[in-house]
Each structure stands twice: as structure tokens, then as C-alpha cells.
Amino acid sequence: MNTESNETRAKKFGMVIDLDKCTGCGSCMVACSAENNIPVRKDESDKLLSITWIRVYRITNGKDFPDTEICYFPRPCQHCGGKHDDGHSPCVSVCPATATDYDHSTGIVSQIYTRCFGCRYCMAACPYHARYFNWWDPVWPAKLEESLSPDVSPRMRGVVEKCSFCFHRYQLARDKAYQEERDVEEMEYQTACTQACPSGAITFGDLNNPDHAVYTLKKDKRAFRLLERLHTNPKVYYLSEREWVRRAGDNYLSNEEPTGAPGAYELKGKGGH
Amino acid sequence: MDSALIPEGVERCSLKRFTLGLVIPAALVIWGLYAAYLCWFKGLNQTNMNDSYGFALWIWADLAVIAVGGGAFFTGFLRYVVGKDELKNIINFAVIVGFCCYCSAMLILAIDIGQPLRGWFIFWHANVHSMLTEVAFCLSLYLSVLAIEYLPLLLENRKIDQNPFWHNMGHRMHEIMAVFAATGAFLSCFHQGSLGGVTGVLYGRPFGLREGIFIWPWTFFLYTWSAAACGPCFTMFCCKITEKLTGKRLVKDNVYDLLAKISGWMLGTYIVAKIADTLWWAVVTVPKTGFSFMQFYNNSNNYHGLWILILELVVCGIVPAAILLKKEWRQNSRLFMVAVTLAVFGVCLNRWVMVMQPMAMPVMTFDQWVLYFPSWQEWATTILPVAGGILVIALSYRYLPVFPQERELNPVEKS
Amino acid sequence: MFPFIWEWVWDAGHYIFFGGMWYVLIILTVGLNWCIYKALKDTKEGKGSGQGHH
Question: How far is CA B194 from CA B30, B54, B123, B133, B220, in A?
């Protein structure tokens, strides 16, 4: 967890996902898999063994027809900042071999595949199930192997992997910007899932930069984060008009009512907390 | 045939009978080694673990054997540091049991990691913030201490003892054993505690999360405490089984009584602390995360019920503590066995609860409870070190003067 | 583990953690070596002819 200085102020890359726009088409999952060389097994039906760096959950309001409502809930790695947003994310603080690290210059939680020895403590620590273990050697159907991305290293059996916010794209954009002696533009660095989303539900950028769309969107009154109450400080924000969807983002006791602020709540009938 | 190796003044069964007795554990070792080979060469797809259950049977087994192996450090601490002299009659056996337990833990860890050849990264690239790093360091150092404590006993084998250098070496090691024992106790306090911290620090997993002091969650202290309480119970349990199998009394009752009384006090105070911790967790810690205590126990699979908590705290906590604390009860051999068995079962159950339940429980509101049942490879590799431990104990008993009181309690009539 | 590995930071965590580790390693190494040295010396002096217990 070394602090790295930057020419400009530290960036904090994050994502805002508008759940009211998400149609559950799964393009983000496909784009992510293709971009990041995720292997394909013959049988991917067991989702507890299948690698999906971004996974789209289907949630409902639990009501009967005709009041049933559905929401599709994409969940990439949340790139948590940790309790005091100081980089002690649930997974980073527990990794015994420093194989997962918090980059203070970008806010991205990295995974060093050649360093990971597969103890899976980080998986036990992550409440979002955003981390995946390579139970098998990675294999691709013959033709698919030819289309692997040369920018992303495939992972070996026995290590943990997860969403990197397409960090290789940032590296390319940063190198280009450095050569041209300027800063990385908002649209120069976008994740594969953001670009693949046909309904434009995903917005990506620097949460610290007022010129980036995510800076404004994260302050939207519809915004919330997943499991805010655990103080993991995720960098993925969600938007929804629907109260039941916002409530699904966190756990509340039966006598608590979520309020507008992310993760905040008040006791039923009392007000204020 | 092997009489030259057997300690003087004691009787042992025939080599044939001894070898026959070891057939089953040896077969289990071979079975376990085959399963370990599969896991090492084919990968962890040989297990039934999955991305929700990344910590499973093996991690539980690790935590459990280290807890019950705590008898070595605590008995050593009482014998060499506190100065409870009677315990010299059981310390050798406690060291052997502890040595087997810690070897088991290291072996299971070596199978459990996805990239076994990179195991040394935990030392080389250590992250000092991780509880697992502390566990790995203290565990391997303590295993070295146990090996050092076991060595003088090995050197007392009749044949080895005939060599003057080894004889002197054993003698000199005995002289400074208190230094090693104190180092072992220091290491044990930390790694037993760090194991408690493993789930206690997981602030993303409300079931395992505990508040605490400075960087240590309360489970840090509870684990050390429970290992000190239940470890000696396991030593006594194994000792009683050895007596049963050999048909001999090997340790005098006053030794058992002293250790049982100390264990009773440790277990009694531990269970008070554990109940206080559970109450604080249920009433203060858990509600802050948005969960209610009962949410952890009311679930569709009806498997993770409140019965586990009652079994752990009452049946395997209060009951054995009461038996061990009351003189008349602990001196009743049947009640004594019930108490040590329950205490050992209880500490294993506690480790099960802390490892398995946090994995099973959903944290996101739209997640599901997950159930898991180990594959035969996981069972075999978990049984492997237990069977191996039986072999080590059997061989040690046969060829080493493990029990100083054996000759006195079982005089051999000279023909 | 060593100051020349990149994860190393000169902070309290590293001082305490690795301080403890090296301290224990030194105790074990010195202790064992003391035993070996003394045992060799005893053997040279003709002590320990292979009988008796301690």
C-alpha cells in the first residue's frame, strides 16, 4: 500500500450505473469477458464456479402480479476505499502476500496474478462476491484463442481474479497522454462494459474531477451504493427512482426506513438518525 | 525383534500385533496422500468449494487442529514458566500431540492453496496487515519450537541415547527447555489469536465481524483463551485413549486432576467471556450493519439454526466447565471423559461456526444462502494428518519413554 | 520480509511484526547452537557414556 505521487492530484476512478436504464441484456458481461480474456468452460451453468467479473443480478420487489417489478443489477468489483477511504479495502487489508493492492493515484484495487498464491482470504472478505477463483486451467475454444487480447494477461489455475476497471486501457491512455504532455481525457479511458452498454446505463470517470459526468451523477438524489452500512466505501454508485431498488442496496432492520442519503436510515415513525 | 529399541523397564506388545494395529491408519494415510496428489496436480477443482465457499473444510480443520493442539503450549507454559512440576508427567505426550496437530495444519494449508509452489510468497511478500500473515509466521515458527521440544524425547530412545553426543545434546536441550517453552507460549498467544482475527476482522461479513481493541477483534483473545482451555482437554482425551488401547495406566490421577482443574477454570472464564462477546455482537455490532441477530439463524435451509449456538455455548461450554470445576465430578472417570470430549467438540464447533457460517450467509440483500458438502478428496486429505498423527503417537509410545510414570504404574515382573 | 523487498515500509507495523519474528528466530538459533556447542564440548570431555536419563 505505497502511496504514489502523481503530477496532478490523485484520481479516483468510479462508475455510476443507472438501474432504471439497465435492461439486463448482458452486453456488459460479454464485453468484459472478451476484453479481459476470461476463459470459457463447456458448462458454465454453475454460477458459483463461473467467472463473471461483472455479473448482472435479477432482483424483484417480491410482489405478486400485477405489482411485480424487476430490476437488473450489474455488479462489478466495487473497488472499495475501505473504512476511512484510506485504501484498507476488505480484500486488500487481508491479502497475506500483497497480491491485491490499492492504488492511491487511481483508487483502483489491483490484482497481481503472478503474486497470488490462491489462499482465497480476499474472497472470504468480499461481501459482493466480486472475486473469482480459477478452479481450472483457463481454456478457450480453438478459434476463440486467436482473438485473445494481447493487453491482458490470462490467469493461471489456482489464483483469484476480479474486475480491474479495464486498467490496461488506463495504462494505454496514460502513456499516450504523458507523451503528449497532457492529462487523460474523460472519454480516453472508458471500461469495456461502459462502452458496450446499449442503453447507456453505465457512466465511468474520475469521481474527483468536476468535469467528469460521474462527479455530478454520484451526487444525484437517486444515488446509493451497495452495502453502504458496512463502510466498505465502494466506487460504484447506483441510480434508481424506485424506492424498493434503493432499499435492496443495503440491509435494514424491520424498524428502520432508508432515507435519501446513501446508506442512511431513520427509525420508523420517529425521524432522524 | 525390535526389543533393543524399546525403553527399559516397560512392556510392549509384539511387533506383529503393533504392525497389524497400524494397518488401518497407514491405509488412510495412503488414501489421503492420493487425494493430496490429485489436489496438487489437478487443482482445487477436485474439491466441492466454490466462489462463495472459498474457505471450507480445510480451513476449519486448520483452525480446529491448532485449537486442540494448544495443549502443548499451555501445558508447556504451566510446566516450565509457571512451574507446575507434576505436569512433567504429561508434557512429553502434550508435545507429541501438539507436534502432530501443527504438522497437520501445515500440511492442510499446503494442499489448500491454489498455487502451492508459491506458498513462500506469504513470507517473502508479507503484508503485515493480514491476520493470515501473522498466522503463517507464528505457526511455522511454533512448529519449529515443537520440533525442538520433541527432539530431546527422540534422543532418549535407547539406541540413540547410547551415542554420547546425542545423549549430551538431549541433556543440554532439557536445560534450556524453559526458554523454548516460553518462546512457544509467546508465539502461540499470537497465532491462536490471529486465527481468531481471521474472521473477526472481516468487516464485510457481519456474521464473523467483531469489535475489539486496537487492531485486534475480541475473537483474537477468545481464540487464545479457548485453545488454552480446550487444548489440554484434547491432550488428556488422547492420553486416556492411549491408556485404553494399551490397557495400562500411564499418568497418575493427580496429574489429570491438576490439568483438568486448570482447564475447568480456563473454560469457565472463557465461556463467560464468550457469552458476553456473543451478547455484545448480537445487540450492538450486528444491528449497526443492518442485520438482526435472528436473521443469521432463520433461513430457508433450516440448517444454520439457533441450535448451533446453544450446542456450542451450553452443551459444549457450560456443561464441561461445570464438570471440570467441581472436584467430585471431574474425579468421576466417566464424567471426566464426557467433559473433555464435550470441551474438544465445543472448540471444534466454535471454529466451524466462525469459518463456515460467514461463508454460507448472504450479505447482499439479493444473494442466496449457500450450502456446501466436501468432496471425498477433501475428506481424505483432512483424515490424512489425523491418521498420520496416530502413527506418530503409536511409534513414539512404543520406542520412546513418553510417560515418566509408566514404569512405576506398571511394574514389570522380572523372570 | 527484508527491507530490500518492495513491499517493505519503515513503519510501526513492520517494526513490531518483523521485530518479533527476527527476535524469535534469533532465540531459537542461538538456543540450538548453544546446545550443540555444549554437547560437543561435553562429548570431548568424555561425558555421557550412553546410559541413564535426565
Answer: 32, 19, 16, 9, 6
In angstroms, what is the C-alpha Rg of chain A? 19
pTM: 0.92
The answer as to whether A272 is a domain residue is no
Among B80, B140, B167, which would you mutate to test the C interface (most chain C Cβ atoms within 10 Å of its Cβ)? B167
Outline where DSSP puts E strands in B182-244: 212-213, 216-217
**CA nearest A19: which of A63, A71, A58?**
A71
Helices (H), B291-403: 306-310, 319-325, 327-330, 333-360, 376-399
Q: Which amino acid is at A21?
A: K
Mean pLDDT of C3-11: 81
pLDDT at B299 over 80: no
C: neighbours with 3+ CB pairs under 8 Å? A, B
- SS3 at position B171: helix
Taking only the tens place, the pLDDT of each residue in A209-261 is 999 999 999 999 999 999 999 999 999 999 999 999 999 999 999 888 776 66
C51 touches chain B (CB under 8 A): yes
Q: Is there a contact between B374 and B47 (Cβ–Cβ < 8 Å)? A: yes
Q: In the prediction, which pLDDT does A269 show? A: 56
Structural domains in chain A (count): 1
CB A228 within 8 A of CB A216: no
Instruction: Please compute the mean of the pLDDT values over residues C23-48 and round it to a whole number.
Output: 92
| Domain presence at residue A24 | yes
CATH code of the domain covering residue A70: 3.30.70.20
Among the partner residues B50, B118, B126, nearest to A49 by beta-carbon distance? B50
Note whether residue A3 is domain-resident: no
Contacts of A158 in chain B (CB under 8 A): 43-44, 113-115
In a domain, A4, yes or no: no
| Cα–Cα dist B44/B38, whole Å | 9
- DSSP state for residue A82 in the 8-state scheme: B
Under the banding of pLDDT at 50, 70 and 90, the label for residue C47 is confident
SS3 assignment, position A236: strand
Query: Does the structure show a pLDDT above 90 at A32?
Result: yes
pLDDT at B280: 96
For A179, the domain range is 13-267
Predicted ipTM?
Answer: 0.93
